[in-house]
């Protein structure tokens, strides 16, 4: 079995065990808390596990288990358990971010099913409880997202407990803490720009969209997991710098691909309605580039339509066509290629074992060519 495949299986096992341990804690409080475990399990089942994989290969970049063949043979059990727990923590943190992101964006779906706040809303309606179903759903989902955030810290603490080096523990904790802060501030900047974009000069629109990409997604999708894994393995400052130089441009390319999928993706593959980002009013790099190229009347049309939750499918298609005709889609694809080239050049400068280098090169392709 390929090493990365086995890692994904181990992380799923780690997630299942982690939730199994917390199930009786909630049950002891009240049986009405069972949806918290159920919805957490559903959200944490499957997925691409990019963050777990980058964490693992960052750890392996330090020489951990190099030459051992794969996870099934040769890796020190305690060290392997450490990185699997860290990868589990990253996936639980990602789940927390998804719950909160769906609330902020008022998204109805996630991975082809109802988003968590809609599931709680349905519980309210089905049971005929008093008050607003929508308010209950959002409130309950906020609490589940907060709980997952706390649990991600618990899982990461467990990883640190099995890390023998105090220096490695401090370095990994520092990176994990930085990641959490950057994601939350990046999310706020995203919300801020959706509401305040008219207050900023036209010349700042692209730069602000790029800043959101970096802090809301790029760092935490690729760079932070890589560096956290490497820090757990006792990486040198030189290795950490090399992995950052590789991870950031690849993370930017990752989010730019995500932005294109949010506008043009096949809903049967992405699990989200096509054009969802248009209805949510995302002020992405794609939108900034389009507005800079379009004539004034077309810019007014985009600004009037973007962020309308009631956009019809016809209006979405018109917006999609407008973005394509502006040349912005081609420009974003060009930026993606440039960022991938930057990441590839940076990777070539990092001293790595052959298996680690090969797997990171595969991940470049997986990140960029994904359809969901």
Give a written overview of the molecule.
This protein has helices spanning 3-29, 34-43, 50-60, 77-105, 116-127, 133-161, 166-196, 205-232, 237-264, 267-270, 276-280, 285-293, 296-305, 313-325, 328-348, 354-368; strands spanning 109-110, 113-114. It contains 16 helices and 2 strands. The longest helix has 31 residues, at 166-196. With 372 residues, it is mainly alpha-helical. It has one domain (3-368): Farnesyl Diphosphate Synthase (Orthogonal Bundle), CATH 1.10.600.10. Helix content is 76%, strand content 1%. Strand 1 (109-110) and strand 2 (113-114) form a beta hairpin. The two termini are 24 Å apart. The chain has a two-stranded antiparallel ribbon. The model has no long low-confidence stretch (mean pLDDT 92).
List the main descriptive attributes of the protein structure presented here:
372 residues; Farnesyl Diphosphate Synthase; 76% helix; globular; transferase; magnesium; two-stranded antiparallel sheet; 16 helices; metal-binding; Polyprenyl_synt; mainly alpha; single chain
